[in-house]
Specification:
20% strand; single chain; alpha+beta
């Protein structure tokens, strides 16, 4: 018999289900309303920004890098536009090597291009484009464009390239730029400059390019583009132009720089010439040099090995980092210290038998039989070693350190370049920190003797000697050397001079300075460098120096012909002119060249002739100086007074 349905129960269940569904729908609808309110109210700004970023793309505009000029407006670093062939690895369809091989059938790709690409790819992320070929010709651009459809992920881009029209001239001063490496990229990301370097691939690596990177780089601009869902640009919404980098004007005279580099020839060494009144550096020479254009796009392995493995070390900035024993150029400063401390008077006379005995050790003078009776003037003019052996003994190492430190020896000058060498100004405290073993940390009295003639542990840069010379002629006013004269805003044309900065006032008595200057004038009139300044229409002052590299045994005479060329003595010279009102001071070294009077002073004479008289030497004169055979007797014909620009230099 069929059971009757419980209608009332079914109705109750139906109503319960409808109620549950209604509640569920209401809750869902409430959640949707809440979500809508959350998105429309609380998350509005954030989501609006995301929507805009999906709809728009911000494309950085890399600014033109500022140019570098010498004091007369000659361009030393500039930019030019060229096409590059670039690959974005993440966008490739075929294997990378296969793509490069196929590209080589269209555009020439040399092995060095492949090696450079491999190195740059290792330093880049997969979504960044990496140049395979740079500076494409118009024909190469046309050939690739016709077949670009075959190479997804490969494109032609127009880029600005850095150019150094002088080649290897003044390369240590100018420096170079190169691609930003991972360490530099990380440093930029942690700095306030991160946004300004978006889209920038290059940064200053050395010299002025590195030190004045902020001024030269400029301000990055942006294009705000509307894009399609596929990321294709539709139209430009707004734009903020890039601001080009400033023009950096050096104090260096590139014609003087070329003159000095030519006078050095194939010899190694360094020269710093500066205006003692302002601290402006007129020439900053390090020989040998290198071509900075090799580094702009990443130097190839062959050139890198040639530079890095060369025994001449062309990558070493000898004027900035090279340290040398000052030799006899140290004697005038030792004499000044003796006057300042009361250890000597100008009239005191000492007998020089040709040697100085300290214990059982015989310190030889450079003149057989000695100089006889020597006062301070003769000790400098004739460069008497024995006089300064005695003086060093009487002063002691720590007093020497105290006095020489005041003049700037053994500490950076503060020049506007990165990586300046410190040198070594020895003291008992220095030796305790420089060595580990107790017996090495002890200072021995015999070690003090050779300090008086600029030997022993003494090691200084030519920059320090030049600054000390400038301090001497300035009556103790110490100036900070600087290579940049002014920075010019190319937009507003505003010129910002680099202020001449006195570092300190060294307490020197005028009568002491006058005594040393009188002796330095005597050196060029009747002393060791007199032959180089015969017939000069101006009065100059200077001091020659010869610094030992190889120490001969006691009582053994030095013979350069029996020693390897790189172990021979260095030739040094410090000088200034005109003596009565100096406009230029210099310090220089010619490595392993022997006597400063023969191989360094003639270069200084040509520098003074150019700066003071506007005279440029003839090719024959330059060749003679390079051979160490230059002398200019009284009445000899002088060179032409016109100063031609170097062949590669164009006046801007």
């Amino acid at each position: 018999m069929k059971a009757l349905r419980d209608v009332e129960a079914d109705l109750h269940r139906f109503r319960a289900r409808v109620l549950a569904a209604t509640v569920l729908i209401a809750v869902a609808f409430a959640l949707l309303v809440l979500r809508l309110g959350y998105l429309q109210w609380w998350r509005y700004d954030d989501l609006y920004e995301q929507a805009e970023s999906n709809r728009t793309a911000v494309v950085p505009i890399v600014p033109n890098r500022g140019i570098i000029m010498d004091r007369h407006g000659v361009v030393l670093a500039s930019n030019y536009s060229a096409y590059t062939l670039e690959i974005t690895p993440s966008k490739l369809v075929d294997p990378l090597e296969q793509v490069i091989d196929q590209l080589a059938d269209v555009i020439e790709v040399q092995p060095r291009d492949r090696r450079r690409f491999k190195k740059l790819r290792e330093e880049s992320r997969s979504f960044e484009s990496v140049p395979l070929r740079t500076r494409l010709t118009d024909q190469e651009v046309a050939r690739f464009t016709a077949q670009q459809f075959r190479f997804p992920g490969v494109e032609i881009r127009a880029r600005l390239f850095r150019s150094y029209p002088m080649g290897d001239l003044a390369s240590h001063v100018i420096g170079y730029i190169g691609r930003i490496n991972p360490a530099e990229k990380e440093r930029l990301e942690d700095s306030d400059d991160e946004a300004n370097y978006r889209g920038t691939d290059y940064i200053g690596k050395l010299g002025i390019e590195q030190r004045y990177e902020r001024e030269l780089h400029g301000t990055t601009g942006v294009h705000e583009m509307e894009t399609s869902a596929g990321g294709r640009a539709v139209r430009r919404l707004s734009s903020m132009a890039a601001v080009p980098g400033h023009t950096v004007v050096l104090s260096v005279d590139i014609r003087l720089q070329k003159l000095v580099e030519d006078l050095y020839g194939q010899r190694r060494g360094a020269l710093v010439a500066m205006d003692p009144n302002t601290g402006e550096v007129l020439a900053f020479v390090s020989k040998p040099t290198f071509d900075p254009n090799l580094f702009v796009e990443g130097i190839d392995q062959e050139n890198w090995q040639a530079l890095n493995d060369s025994p001449d070390k062309p990558l070493l900035n000898r004027a900035l980092r090279g340290t040398y024993p000052p030799g006899s150029t140290y004697k005038p400063f030792m004499a000044l210290a003796a006057l300042s401390t009361g250890k000597r008077t100008p009239q005191q006379v000492f007998a020089d038998p040709g040697y100085f005995m300290f214990g059982n050790h015989r310190f030889r003078d450079d003149k057989e039989g000695g100089h006889g009776m020597v006062d301070m003037y003769r000790s400098i003019v004739e460069s008497c070693d024995t006089y300064y052996y005695l003086l060093a003994r009487d002063m002691g190492v720590d007093l020497i350190h105290e006095q020489m430190n005041l003049l700037g020896f053994g500490r950076p000058t503060g020049i506007d370049l990165v990586g300046e060498g410190r040198g070594i100004l020895p003291s008992t405290e220095w030796k305790r920190t420089a060595y580990r073993k107790p017996e090495q940390q002890r200072w021995y009295s015999g070690e003090t003797i050779s300090l008086g003639i600029g030997q022993g542990y003494n090691n200084f840069t030519m920059l320090q000697i030049a600054q000390a010379t400038a301090t001497l002629v300035n009556q103790g006013r110490q100036m900070r050397p600087h290579l940049v004269r002014e920075v010019v805003d190319v937009v507003s044309k505003q010129r910002t001079p680099v202020a001449d900065q006195p570092v300190a006032q060294v307490p020197l008595k005028p009568e002491h300075v006058q005594e040393i200057q009188r002796a330095l004038v005597g050196v060029n009139l009747e002393g060791t460098s007199a032959s180089s300044f015969v017939g000069a229409p101006y009065t100059s002052a200077g001091k020659t120096g010869t610094a030992q590299v190889f120490t001969v045994r006691q009582n053994e005479k030095y013979n350069a012909s029996r020693i390897d060329e790189r172990m021979r003595d260095h030739a040094l010279f410090m000088a200034y002119a005109p003596a009565e009102s100096p406009k230029v001071v210099l310090a220089m070294v010619v490595e392993n060249a022997g006597f400063g009077a023969q191989n360094a002073a003639p270069i200084a004479r040509r520098v003074f002739d150019y700066v003071l008289m506007g005279q440029y030497p003839s090719e024959e004169d330059v060749a003679a100086v390079q051979r160490g055979q230059a002398t200019r007797p009284i009445g000899a014909p002088r060179v032409a007074k016109t100063v031609p620009l170097p062949e590669r230099i164009s006046q801007r």
